[in-house]
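May I ask for a protein sequence together with how it folds?
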Amino acid sequence: MLGTYLFGLREGLEAGLIVFVLVAHLAGSGRRNAAGPVLAGAGAAVGVSLALGAALEFGPREPTPEARELIAGTLSIAAAALLTRTVFRTGRAALRGAEGSASGAGAEGSASGAGAGNAASGAGTGAGEVALGAGAGVSAVTAFLAVGREGPETAPFVWSSVRAASPSSAGGSFEPLTWVLLGLLTAALLGWLLHRVAVRTGRAGPSARTGGALLVMTAGVLASGVRDLQEAHLLGGLADTAFDVSSAVPPDGWSGTFLGGALAFQPDPTVLQVTVWALYPVLALALFLSPIGSGPSARVKKQKATDEQAEGGASAGTTS
């Protein structure tokens, strides 16, 4: 039953790690009440997945493997898009608020015209809070998609284990269901522990670290969605394998389980999948960590304008 346990662990890690790191990222970006919408979205995804899985398992018709891969791939790409949007919007809004506070503090120390600097700082911080507060619904949808993308594969497996445990089945046993649930619970515990670590790390400042971790995870989600669409025959290149390390990292072993759960790693990825996997984090991290605005000169010009405004206020006060 080790394989059943590892299946539950892998599927739980693929969904749970993203959810817990997303909560830590939003909290580090100033959204202390972010856990509610995210967990609500994740819970809704679990409920919908189980309901659909029950309908597929006990219903008269079963979808084809291609249909399941198409659903999973579409949900994965949608989840990757919303995760990227969330990281950029919340992370950069928090950084803008930090920059505005620093500019206001510098202007306050320069002269008695600090009121203008404080007003600019408050406006920047207020804009960041509005941007952060407006994303509760998006956070819930993001968590829903991040968890729901695992539904087409995980829910039917869970319900097949339930069916195997029913008294009416030949040689019914609760063992498969018990092991898959233990795997999911272990994944939830590991995700919670990672969340605690991420929250403590994010207390040092705006969520650059948790945002970077989320973007790396999102790369795996996006690449996994591309592979699903290839297996659904919507994209070509399924036979073009970039490399195969299945002998060194078996997908049903401990190493393959943790790598697959944390980074959506596959030991035999396609060329297109590896290309997406490599390019997305490089481009996304470069944009996320780049200076806010038009570059360093934008911050310099903003600081100079604030200082000039403060000096003008001080001069007016001296003349009067």
